[in-house]
Each structure stands twice: as structure tokens, then as C-alpha cells.
Amino acid sequence: MRIVSGKHKGRRITAPKKLPVRPTTDMAKEALFNILNNQFYFDELRVLDLFAGTGNISYEFASRGTTEVTAIDGNAGCIRFITHTSNTLELPINAIKSDVFKFLEKTNIQVDLIFADPPYAMDKADFERIPKLVFDRNLMTSEGWLIIEHSDKTDLSDLRCFKNSRKYGGSVFSFFEAEN
User: Fold this and answer.
1) How far is Cα 56 from Cα 23, in angstroms, rounded to an integer?
2) Does the model's pTM come out above 0.70?
């Protein structure tokens, strides 16, 4: 994987093979960040990266100037890798080992953007829990976005606060915004 833009543009990062991850492809990540670049000032964002895996998305935000990035993953190896990489690159990422759903149920964090990249094979009911917890617990600012990456075999368009989706290969980004 590589960092697409920002102060570490072009930097390649190689994650250990033993991590249970499926990083967002560079093509999909580049397309996503082109969308975000037209909507947000990265240096003003507070970001929550759920199911962070290798930290691929967290590194991209931090490289582009985001100074508050929180990465959540339940795998200790992933958290160690994110912590090591962010320290090496001097990126402001706070990596926390936690079950994502338990974290969402207990946290009182409020951010501008939440990116969730759960396992593609996760049950639809668990996909539904993500926006429910985010919006019921008011974890985003009023102008914030929730983005869930999922397989093109999963349809989230019937979920509360769904706005639209974009497909890149076999991956889809579904965008959610608070009802104002």
C-alpha cells in the first residue's frame, strides 16, 4: 500500500502478512480522497477510523494534515503496526485496541468524519449497527460524514441517513449524513 498524497505522498508501507486485513485499494482510496478533498479542509477535521486494519486510511488523513485521527481495531497486531508506523512517520494517530461496537457504545468522542471498513462478510445486521450507533449516540458534528466501505454484494441504501454510494471495482463506499 502507499500514501497517495500529503507530506508522505508516494511512501510505500508494507504490513506484516499475518495481519487479518484487506486494505482499501489505492485506486479506491484515491477516488475517495478526491471526493473528500472537494468537501473538507483536512487540517480542520477530526477523524475516526473504524476497523482500521493496517491504518491505511488513517495514514492518508494524517499525511494530508489531519491532526486528530483515532484508529480503532480489535486486533492487537494491527494496533501495534499502526502505532509503530505512525510513530515512525511522526503522524498524529491515536490507535486503540477495542471491539468497534463496544467502542461506539461507550465513547463520547465527537468527530467530523467516520470511516468504517468492516469485514466484507459481516452480517447485514452488523452493518446496520454502525450508522445506528453513530447517529443515536451523536458521535459526529452536524456537517459530518460517515463512510462505510463494503462489498458490491452488500446494499446499504435502505439504512437511516444514507445519502449515496460510489462503486470502485468490487468495493463500494456508502455515504451517510445526519438528518438536519
Assistant:
1) 7
2) yes
